[in-house]
Amino acid sequence: YQELHDENRKFPDGTGSFGRVMETARLFQKYQVEFNILTVVTAQSARRIRRTYQFFESQGFTYQQYIPCIDPFEENKGSLSYSLTPDRYGKFLKDLFDYWYQDWKEGHPVYNRTFENWIGMLHNYPPESCNMMGICSEQWVVEADGSVYPCDFYVLDEWKLGNIRTASFEEMNEKREELDFVSLSRHVPDQCRDCRWYPLCRNGCRRDRELLPDGRTPGLNSYCASYQDFFSYAYPRMLEMARSIR
Fold first, then answer.
1. Cα 181 to chain center, whole Å?
2. Model pTM score
3. Residue 103 catalytic?
4. 13, 145, 152, 194: which is the annotated catalytic residue?
5. Mean pLDDT (10-residue bins), the chain, 246 residues
6. Which secondary structure element, helix H or strand E, spans residue 98, and what is its range?
7. What is the distance between the alpha carbons of residues 205 and 157, in angstroms, rounded to a whole number?
8. What is the separation, in whole angstroms, between the first and last Cα of the chain?
9. Going by C-beta distance under 8 Å and a sequence separation of 6 or more, which residues neighbour residue 166?
10. Following CA atoms 60, 62, 68, 69 in sequence, which dihedral angle do they give, to the nearest 10 degrees?
């Protein structure tokens, strides 16, 4: 909704972009162009998920995606005003699931990318969202100058694969292997091996994992406690939904 949106989504002159976004959404709806709403979950938006969810519902935005915000890599996690803590993220997931589940029970389901992937995984389908696979997949992020990176969360000099104007995809894939971008993501922390929820959680997205002392290998997901709290809370209803599909 406007107040929350304009706190973060500003034009260069400092004005909020809510009106422009809504105008575009209305054009999409008018001409039947499919789109989904991507919501970045911050400390502020996590606390206001009920109002946000109700706003989306009132506007007919029934295709939704939520991703936790990322603190700058050089900052200590949780140190900024918008930082998302594990407790807050866990509560957000539970609150959002309650609203989503209730809509499904009442016969007007809303698409939620994260929850729908987990339901599919209960049917042994692979997740279509790369952040839920457990390991990084082969991605190509091409910037305006032709620079190519392995992930949109790692558009950083140290992970640059090359430039599409001067290097072939084969050469850039060799660079990906040289940097060990995918192989480093295969590391499974000891806590995950013994966790009941690992088959669903898979240690979450690499971007949210704490680095090991070598400074390169992703370790345990910083939202581990969030996922444990959520699955313990929602799993019986997730099974109910999966069985209804079966």
1. 19
2. 0.93
3. no
4. 152
5. 95 97 97 96 96 96 95 79 94 98 96 97 95 95 98 95 98 97 96 96 95 93 97 98 90
6. helix 86-105
7. 20
8. 36
9. 146
10. -30
